[in-house]
Amino acid sequence: MTTATPLRALALTCSLKPSPAPSSTDLIARQVLDALAEHGVEGELLRVVDHDVKPGVEVDMGDGDAWPAIREKVLAADVLLIATPTWVGQMSSVANRVLERLDAEISETDDQGRPHTFGKVAVVAVVGNEDGAHKISADLFQALDDVGFTVPAQGATYWNGEAMHGTDYQDLDETPGATATTTATVARNAAHLARLLKASPYPPAS
Which of 106, 133, 165, 194 is buried deepest, with most CB atoms within 10 A? Predict the structure, then answer.
């Protein structure tokens, strides 16, 4: 375990189910956070649907908008995990809303002209009972890169059940070996990259 540089992670789980309903998305997100903890990364999980995140592409959409408080947590974290279920082969509408709100970060910069998200690592976790994890990961990676996050090598973990099958990830007797191994790789690479970026930030804007 490497603990030389303390790091923080935030998992935004994008289940459609409000708490306290059991959630496979929460489960895989917690597994990623547990794996990150083995590398000295302190984690927090937030289920987005429990909060009134307004539609829009601004940092603050006005009265009652819960995003500004969530954004503070995003900016305080070194690693951001977006976890989403798969519905009709797509990420959840909640995950899409998170991406829309993160769009504002493109124009929010520090005193050296860099988006505040520069130097932060983003990883992805996907669950579902149908194919779609690769497409969802690709869409999330592109959007997160656009707004300034850095994606590590093999930065996604996922589980998809058989097509037309009704088993949820949380109903499995044990985590499949391939998913567990991939989750460990995501955590290891994310913690490593986050420490590198913290020690050696991206250069200032020209």
Answer: 194
pTM for the whole thing? 0.95
Tokens of 24: 């496979």
Q: Between the CA of residue 88 and those of 73, 166, 168, 203, what are the distances in Å?
A: 30, 14, 15, 41
Give CA–CA dist 206/203, Å, rounded.
Answer: 9
Instruction: Please give the biggest Cα pair distance in the chain.
Output: 54
197 CB-contact burial (10 Å; exposed 0-12 / middle 13-18 / buried 19+): middle
Tokens of 133: 């994890």
Evaluate whether 148 touches 113 at the Cβ level (below 8 Å): no
Of the pLDDT bands very low, low, confident and very high (cuts 50, 70, 90), residue 3 is low
Residue closest to 5 by CA, chosen among 43, 35, 31, 42: 42
Q: Given phi > 0 = left and psi -120 to 50 = alpha, else beta, which region is 18?
A: beta
Beta-carbon count within 10 A of 43 CB: 21
Q: Does CATH place domain 11-199 in 3.40.640.10?
A: no
**How high is the pLDDT of residue 129?**
76
